[in-house]
């Protein structure tokens, strides 16, 4: 036989059987395996092997000097217990019963020396793999349920006669080979399949020469996953490669070879003998078998990395396995009386909660750690039952700390229970502990939901739990400013698992991004008038303050028309793509008032169902400010929700339950809630109308990356414009290396220098008030700050002190070296001075109370800022397709980042430089126009826009069109009239013998003359004509007369009144924007 054979036996099944024998499995021919099953294809246990092993690995320890064997009756009872699995709860329930037998054993009564007691019999020796026996067979025929025929899995692996691994092999040249192999496993597990075999399975494999995937019993196709080895050092990787290469190229011994090729493979022995003459390269199939099926690894995976979660069986993914192994080794040894913790970075959706549970279990079972006390700090209350069940097999109780006091009691009690708690109870406990607990066998596992509190929490824990091992979990990369935080826990724990790895592995779905915009246009006149009047009563500082707030893009983006336009776009988009499927959406908004407004408009439009999940009206959320009154709409909505649900908790729980389990609502509208930690795989799209960045942005978009059947991608539809922020956040996915460690040490040195200045800055601040005899007299403080220069000095000294204290409070050395009462004094005095600053700012009008303006300005903006139809501004692009995504980023933000004065950053630039150009104060609406123009023009044709802004900023809204007639080049309004007319003419008169471009030019020029003549009187535009129906009506009649007389009749065209109205209405709308 010459060349490569692609027969399944040759290229997959026989090589697998060869390697498995080299790994320690004894090969059985199909006939031998059937004989060991009593000749019954309905029986899947090798009962004689099981019986023999029960005798071998079990004994009863009566006392220190005496051991007894289990009776033959009990050995038989053990075989019967494994054979007769209860199935009342269903197939997966039976599988869990098998797992409990395997891991917990089963107790049988036996009388020894007249003393009858119960003793536990084990089915597998987990601690000593070499005491178990491993068999492999192929073409394992099993009778189908209720049928006379059989199904034949390609390979089955047995441990002590129990079939724990089922493998399907496929040739690599078949299209969709891996999917076919997985499909066979799923077929085999159906009601009419061979569930009798899969009842015992712990690991399922689908393999071929160049691919592989693994899962466990009951795993849907979507959740089959890849296995990869992970290495902490290059040396480890090199040793692994060498070991596998040697194993693959090591020949079977003569007996093994003779046995393998003695039956149905006899015909192909010469082919494999020839292959042995030269070395071969290890295949992906080899890597899967070696990585998952070598005896010690297989037993480790089954015993320590398998759990049942809500009736679903889960087997660890490779990153979970290697991370738990690495941490377990890391914490086994003491360094200076402590165990080294750290931060685990595994991307969202990769199973961090399961990793926490598996790690806690590994620590609990580690023989090197005596009586470990494990505290799991997490918000997921649904973890409790999962944790409780997981720890049954290692004999550990799980206790939930119901209060902070209860947690202190549990820690003091030296209980060996796994303790679960939430963050606020944990912090309470830390505060209430009077004496430090110095036990190095206390482990604190902290979920990422409280990432912002890592540093402060670590410092507090150091005081009361000085030797505890702290391990934090995060799903997003640590930003540069957070790297010091990682070091306070013990550094980044490798291996990390990034979102790109997760996408490649299929652990999460790729995310597709599309930017959209609702164009807005400003009517300047009324806004000018309003702000001229308002600013007359304000000083320069107050004028600046007011204009800064209301020229922001954020404020403009909250107009009623814009929200309605986006609500309509969302309704159509969801209806057209996902309505009627199981999939759901989230809509992220900046404030409660906008969330309620979206709910109102989505209901009015009526195409989709929605709910708004917000906090109580008196709680700040999202971008809400402390000076803003809660809108009446929010109060009314909250009252309605409380009337319907009773309490805030029931309101939240009920909405989430409906969202997860019922067809409606289809869209959940949120501000802050559910952006982190919320896991619902059916969310397929996030509509984003709020500025987010960094960690928060990555957390939010991860709500749509969970794997779900039928879900190929998650979608981010961005109406706000966060493409650059998303690009920057993705860039910050970085590792932690030795150079950064050195940088950290340098940073710590500079921090120490800064902290040393704290007493000086504190005294310098108090020096301003040393002449005040009664330090409790607020009026004396206020009067001492009557002069503006002195107030400015106060503000500057307070800022310097606050900044220095913040740095100090973030370091453990400061807490260790500074008495508690001194720290309290620093903090209390800062709090007092901050309140004093607020009081004197209001007293001397250094700032402005926005409450009296907000309602008026919002109404003004709603009336005089119009929003057009939403339109896309980027291609739909996979954010993990680096090249394609960067191309879209370059289109939108690449040039803007270089110019730093255009696109979505124009608003920020103007605000920051407002006081350097007073002309902006006199024309507030121009600031507003710049904000909207940056949002619209800069994000569409960035390169052309940049050239024009750099060359002549006064022409920022100019555009050119080479196809336009020369007569229109300098007339922006007429350009638009021409385009509208030509579009309609070409649509309805394309067969007419008329020069349509010439006709459109004539129409545009005539319309321009009629509109200008109507609206401009004595050289001035009629004030607020856009709101005066009599003027607009008179103008429309004259425009219609022209179209009837000079187009329809003159050229004999079939011109309907509806088509005329299309042109007239469009041109009048354009005039509203240009003629002011």
Automatic annotation (TrEMBL):
Keyword presence, Hydrolase: yes
SUPFAM superfamilies for the chain: P-loop containing nucleoside triphosphate hydrolases
UniProt-recorded Gene Ontology molecular function terms: ATP binding; DNA binding; type I site-specific deoxyribonuclease activity
Keywords assigned by UniProt, alphabetized: ATP-binding, DNA-binding, Endonuclease, Hydrolase, Nuclease, Nucleotide-binding, Restriction system
Gene3D superfamilies in the record: 3.90.1570.50, P-loop containing nucleotide triphosphate hydrolases
Annotated catalysed reactions: Endonucleolytic cleavage of DNA to give random double-stranded fragments with terminal 5'-phosphates, ATP is simultaneously hydrolyzed
Pfam families: HSDR_N (PF04313), SWI2_SNF2 (PF18766), T1R_D3-like (PF22679), T1RH-like_C (PF11867)
Top EC class of this enzyme: hydrolase
Gene Ontology biological process terms, A to Z: DNA restriction-modification system
Ranges for domain Helicase ATP-binding: 333-495
EC number assigned by the record: 3.1.21.3
Biological role stated in the UniProt entry: Subunit R is required for both nuclease and ATPase activities, but not for modification.
Description of how the protein assembles with itself and partners: The type I restriction/modification system is composed of three polypeptides R, M and S.
Stated family: Belongs to the HsdR family.
The protein's name: Type I restriction enzyme endonuclease subunit
């Amino acid at each position: 036989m010459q060349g490569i054979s692609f027969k399944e036996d040759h290229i997959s099944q026989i090589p697998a059987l060869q390697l498995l024998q080299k790994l320690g499995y004894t090969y059985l021919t199909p006939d031998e395996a059937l004989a060991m099953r009593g000749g019954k294809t309905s029986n899947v246990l090798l009962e004689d092997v099981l019986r023999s092993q029960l005798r071998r690995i079990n004994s009863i320890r009566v006392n220190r000097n005496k051991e007894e064997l289990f009776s033959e009756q009990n050995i038989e009872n053990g075989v019967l217990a494994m054979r007769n699995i209860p199935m009342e709860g269903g197939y997966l329930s039976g599988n869990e019963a098998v797992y409990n037998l395997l891991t917990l054993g089963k107790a049988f009564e036996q009388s020894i020396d007249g003393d009858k007691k119960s003793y536990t019999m084990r089915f597998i020796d987990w601690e000593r793999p070499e005491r178990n026996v491993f068999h492999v067979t192929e073409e394992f025929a099993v009778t189908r349920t209720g049928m006379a025929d059989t199904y034949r899995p390609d390979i089955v692996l047995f441990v002590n006669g129990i079939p724990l691994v089922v493998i399907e092999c496929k040739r690599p040249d078949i299209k969709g080979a891996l999917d076919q192999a997985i499909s066979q496993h799923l077929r085999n597990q159906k009601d009419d399949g061979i569930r009798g075999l899969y009842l015992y399975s712990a690991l399922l494999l689908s393999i071929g020469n160049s691919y592989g995937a693994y899962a466990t019993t009951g795993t849907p196709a979507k959740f089959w996953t890849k296995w990869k080895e992970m290495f902490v050092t290059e040396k480890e990787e090199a040793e692994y490669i060498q070991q596998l290469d040697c194993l693959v190229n090591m020949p079977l011994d003569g007996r093994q070879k003779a046995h393998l090729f003695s039956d149905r493979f006899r015909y192909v022995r010469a082919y494999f003998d020839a292959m042995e003459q030269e070395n071969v390269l290890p295949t992906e199939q080899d890597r899967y078998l070696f990585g998952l099926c070598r005896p010690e690894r297989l037993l480790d995976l089954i015993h320590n990395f398998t759990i049942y979660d809500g009736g679903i069986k889960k087997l660890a993914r490779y990153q979970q396995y290697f991370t738990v192994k690495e941490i377990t080794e890391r914490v086994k040894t003491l360094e200076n009386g402590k165990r080294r913790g750290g931060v685990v970075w595994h991307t969202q959706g990769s199973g961090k909660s399961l990793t926490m549970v598996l790690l806690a279990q590994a620590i609990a079972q580690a023989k090197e750690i005596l009586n470990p006390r494990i505290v799991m700090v997490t918000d997921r209350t649904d973890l409790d039952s999962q944790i409780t069940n997981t720890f049954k097999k290692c004999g550990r109780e799980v206790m939930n700390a119901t209060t902070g006091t209860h947690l202190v009691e549990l820690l003091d009690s030296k209980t060996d229970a796994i303790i679960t708690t939430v963050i606020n109870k944990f912090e309470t406990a830390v505060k209430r502990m009077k004496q430090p607990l110095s036990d190095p066998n206390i482990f604190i596992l902290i979920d990422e939901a409280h990432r912002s509190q890592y540093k402060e929490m670590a410092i507090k824990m150091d005081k009361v739990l000085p030797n505890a091992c702290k391990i934090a979990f995060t799903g997003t990369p640590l930003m540069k400013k957070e790297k010091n935080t990682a070091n306070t826990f013990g550094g980044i724990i490798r291996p990390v698992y990034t979102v790109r790895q997760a996408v490649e592995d299929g652990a999460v779905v790729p995310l597709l991004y599309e930017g959209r915009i609702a164009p807005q246009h400003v009517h300047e006149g009324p806004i000018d008038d309003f702000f001229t009047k308002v600013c007359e009563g304000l000083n320069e500082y107050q004028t600046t303050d007011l204009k800064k707030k209301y020229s922001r893009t954020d404020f403009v983006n909250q107009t009623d028309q814009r929200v309605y336009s986006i609500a309509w776009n969302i309704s159509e988009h969801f209806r057209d793509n996902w309505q009627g499927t199981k999939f759901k959406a989230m809509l992220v908004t900046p404030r409660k008032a906008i969330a309620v407004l979206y709910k109102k408009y989505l209901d009015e439009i009526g195409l989709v169902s929605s709910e708004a999940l917000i906090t109580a009206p008196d709680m700040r959320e999202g971008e809400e400010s402390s000076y803003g009154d809660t809108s009446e709409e929010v109060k009314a909505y909250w009252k309605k929700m409380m009337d319907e649900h009773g309490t805030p908790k029931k309101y939240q729980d009920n909405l989430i339950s409906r969202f997860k389990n019922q067809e409606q609502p289809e869209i959940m509208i949120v501000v802050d809630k559910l952006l982190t930690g919320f896991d619902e795989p059916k969310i397929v799209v996030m509509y984003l109308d709020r500025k987010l960045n960094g960690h928060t942005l990555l957390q939010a978009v991860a709500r749509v990356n969970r794997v779900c059947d039928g879900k190929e991608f998650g979608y981010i539809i961005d109406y706000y414009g966060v493409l650059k922020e998303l690009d920057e956040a993705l860039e910050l996915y970085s590792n932690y290396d030795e150079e950064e460690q050195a940088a950290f040490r340098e940073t710590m040195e500079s921090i120490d220098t800064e902290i040393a200045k704290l007493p000086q800055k504190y005294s310098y601040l108090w020096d301003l008030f040393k002449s005040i005899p009664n330090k409790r007299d607020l009026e004396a403080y206020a009067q001492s700050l009557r002069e503006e220069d002195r107030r400015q000095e106060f503000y500057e000294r307070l800022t310097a002190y606050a900044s220095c204290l913040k740095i100090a409070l973030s370091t453990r050395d400061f807490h260790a070296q500074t008495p508690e009462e001194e720290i309290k004094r620093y903090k209390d005095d800062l709090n007092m001075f901050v309140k004093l600053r607020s009081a004197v700012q209001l007293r001397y009008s250094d700032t402005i109370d926005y409450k009296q303006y907000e309602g008026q300005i919002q109404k003004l903006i709603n009336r005089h800022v119009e929003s057009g139809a939403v339109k896309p501004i980027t291609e739909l692009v996979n954010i993990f397709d680096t090249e394609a995504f960067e191309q879209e980023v370059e289109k939108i933000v690449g040039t803007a980042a270089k110019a730093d004065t255009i696109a979505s950053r124009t608003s920020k630039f103007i605000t920051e430089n407002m006081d350097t150009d007073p002309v902006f104060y006199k024309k507030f609406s121009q600031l507003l126009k710049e904000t909207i123009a940056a949002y619209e023009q800069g994000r569409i044709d960035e390169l052309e826009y940049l050239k024009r802004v750099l060359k002549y900023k006064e022409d920022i809204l100019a555009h050119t069109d080479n196809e336009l007639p020369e007569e229109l080049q300098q007339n922006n309004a007429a350009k638009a009239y021409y385009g509208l007319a030509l579009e309609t003419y070409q649509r309805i008169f394309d067969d007419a013998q008329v020069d349509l471009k010439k006709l459109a030019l004539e129409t545009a020029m005539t319309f321009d003359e009629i509109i200008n003549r109507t609206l401009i009187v004595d050289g001035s535009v009629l004030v607020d004509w856009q709101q005066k129906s009599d003027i607009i009506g008179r103008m429309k009649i004259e425009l219609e007369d022209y179209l009837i007389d000079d187009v329809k009749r003159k050229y004999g065209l079939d011109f309907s009144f509806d088509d005329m109205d299309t042109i007239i209405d469009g041109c009048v709308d354009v005039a509203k924007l240009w003629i002011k």
